[in-house]
Amino acid sequence: MRRRSLQILLPVLLTLLAAAIALEIGLRVFYQLIPLEVCAADPIIGNYVCQPYFEYDKPVQIAYRYQPNLELAGFWDPANPYLSDVGPETRPVDRSEPFWYVLKTDEMGFPNDESTWSDRYDVIVTGDSFTIRTAPVTWIDALRETSGRRILTLGAPSWTTLNEVAAVKAYGLDKRPDWVILLYFEGNDLLNVQQYLEKQASGLSWKEYDLQGVPLYRRSVLYQLARSYLVPANEEAGGPVKYRYPVTVQSEAGPFETVLKDIHLLPISADYQTIARSDEFAAITEALLDLKEKLAENGGRLLVVYVPSKEHVYWSRIWDETDVNNILERTVTVNLSGGESGRLEWTSQYLDFATFNDNHRAQEQLFTDFLTENNVDFINLTPIFWEATIAQGEMYHYADPHWNQAGNLLVADIIYRYLEER
Question: Which of 130, 146, 235, 302 has its CA 20 to 30 A from that of 184?
Answer without folding.
Answer: 146
